[in-house]
Amino acid sequence: MKPIKLKPNPLIFRTPEVEEKFFVRNIYNEEREKQRAKNRIRKQKINTFEYGIETGIGLKYSDWTKAISKNREQFGENLGIWISKNILPQTILLFSANIYHWNSTLDIDANKDDTALNGFYFTEDHQPLLFQRFNNKHFDYTFQLKLMYEWKKLRPFAGILVNQNTYKMQFLVPENSVLTKMEDFKSSQTCLGFSFGLQYKFFRKFLLSLEYQQYKMKNVSLKNSSFDFDIFQTNNTFVERKINFGISYSISGS
Fold first, then answer.
1. Which of 60, 95, 124, 221 has the fewest CB atoms nearer than 10 Å to its CB?
2. E strand or H helix at 37, and its extent?
3. Could you tell me whether strands 107-109 and 128-135 are parallel, antiparallel, or unpaired per DSSP bridges?
């Protein structure tokens, strides 16, 4: 047995380090970036205008026809444009302009049938006018300002509207003291009203809508620029109502 001399080497210990797990750090960063992206999108959306087109069909009900016609509903079509802006998160302000075409449900022809409108009417200077015909086929124009609340894919809304409509009757008027000239006598009014309804967003840029509109017509009368005279002038107030079903397409926006 012979002893051997050994030179001991110093022990080296690794300094302990606290290290985050990679996947924990990555998830945290990803979530933070998602929130930043959402905030950027939300700010951009609030400051961006969106615009599109709309078309649809509907029914119109007029109180003034109920005394002379059983068919108070008029079927029609409409076409319009709109522009909107998010004024607050989930809150939208929308302006729209639509043109409506309503088909006739009330046709009166004095040359074919006897009606309550048959006979002569006289102007203030005693010129005779002879009623010929009338139907309630016409165009009207509507401008609306709506406030919408967006919840998931639904958008309930309420708004105010301005509606312009024109009805006309035809009379024979004197020309060289003989009733031979046909003239239109028109009732044209601009009416204020309200609307409310619901939109449903499907796919990415399409919306379905169901809407109710109502406004009042006051002091209905028929006028012609060649005669200083109003026919059937009334002091009554009549209500017109519309129920419309439409589809919209967003040309811009997400």
1. 124
2. helix 22-46
3. antiparallel
pLDDT of the residue at 157: 97
- Token digits for 142? 């509507």
Structure-token pair, residue 237: 């107030």
Residue 59 reports pLDDT greater than 80 = yes
Residue type, 216: K
Q: What Cα–Cα distance (Å) separates residue 62 from each residue in 55, 75, 126, 243?
A: 22, 12, 32, 12
Contacts of 220 (CB under 8 A, 6+ apart): 64, 187, 189, 232, 233, 234, 236, 238
Among 194, 205, 200, smallest CA distance to 156 is for 200
Please name the amino acid found at residue 159.
G
d(CA 220, CA 216): 11
Q: Work out the number of other CB atoms within 10 angstroms of the CB of residue 242.
A: 24
How far are the Cα atoms of 19, 28, 70 from residue 24, in angstroms, in the given order? Answer: 11, 6, 74
